[in-house]
Amino acid sequence: MAGLSHNIFTDKQIENLFSAETQVSYMLAFERALANAEGTLGVIPADAAEVIAAVCRETEWNPEALAEQTLLAGNPAIPLVKTLTQRVAQRDTEAAKYVHFGATSQDVLDTALMLQLQAATTYITHKNNELQNQLAKLASAHRDTVMIGRTLLQQARPITFGYKVAGWLEALLRAGQGLEFAQQNTFALQLGGAVGTLATLGEHGPAVVTHMAEALGLAAPLLPWHSQRDRLVDFAAKLGILCGNLGKMAQDLILLMQTEVGEVAEAAVPGKGGSSAMPHKRNPVSATFTVAIAGRTPALVGTLLAGLAHHEQERAAGAWHAEWEVLPELVRLTAAALNHANELISGLEVNAERMLRNLELTQGLIYAEDVTALLTPKLGKAEAHQLVEEASRRAQREGLHLRECLAQHFDIYKYLNANALEHVFDAHRATGLSQFFTDQVLARFHTSTSTT
Hints:
Blueprint: H1 12-17, H2 20-40, H3 46-56, H4 63-73, H5 77-91, H6 93-96, H7 105-141, E1 146-151, E2 154-160, H8 161-186, H9 205-216, H10 230-257, E3 264-265, H11 286-307, H12 319-346, E4 349-350, H13 352-359, H14 368-379, H15 381-398, H16 402-407, H17 410-413, H18 418-424, H19 434-450
Helix pairs in contact: 2-3, 2-7, 2-9, 3-5, 4-5, 7-8, 7-12, 7-19, 8-10, 8-19, 10-11, 10-12, 11-12, 14-15
């Protein structure tokens, strides 16, 4: 039985996709496609292929029994093929001779996995697109909402909230490109036989591969990839990066939710985000779960990456088996992270007034760079920097506003009058190219959605 926190780290549709029942159905889809291809091409008798394909379409297969037998057999394909052969023999003993003809266990399992990952990627892409759409609306709505930008967790200089959101959005656009690449290039048929040479099928091998790939909707690889696992590692890395980007977004928002900052908040939902001890608490929930998932995924990607060098010779003893649970877990976590992120953004409350108030916490120090830039043509960069630094230190020391210190500094004020100082301390002017970059990302988003 799963623990009480299990639902935080998974998704029901993905759970179904990687269930034992679904895995069996995809394994049987491989066997059916294999028999049909071989029957069509004359590798096995056509009537035998028809019987095998018909049995593969049966639905009662007892996955629990197959799971128990896997412990002894070494992989799930062995008991499945044995059961399939027995069922075919009950209909036609001659046809039973051709079950699984020319294939090996890894062919079945790898192809079934590719079909599962392909379906999962379609689902994850849909969730990612939902989030992109929400972020695009948020960035557009807050294109001109001024807030403080922070570096090393310290106030730096003004940006817009739309610009911050655009950064999250652009990362997801790149992730979407990666998922699209996977759909077109990563999910490939596996058919190689004992050592990947298709020796049993001989000259018919390439045609069988092509026929099966088309039937299953997978790419036809140049050669079998039993011990070349970079496709899977690359896909896993894409999911890990996606989760990391979601975690970065959630972490940014958690920091903006701090009581002392208070610039955003998760939606106020009854029973959500409370504390068992403190009635006043309004804790981040969806954001916290997203960050937690981002912390788990690197180790899973690392398991697959470490295994690349250990798929020894033509078939791995251990590295291949390690993939079986790691990849489904990584997919489950990615889908869960997208669910939490979508919930987080859908109800996000933005406190633009608090953002403006926080801009004044340093009493103008965040505009010191702008003052230096204005003085540099008149004084040179070194002298301008020194004078503004002196004024800034005085402001901090005496608790004064930087503009007041500048106005009282003769060597500065003779170059910057009251009108110039008023301009330089305007937060809406100080956001640089925030709106320009936001518009670029939004344009890219709208272009991507119009072509899908």
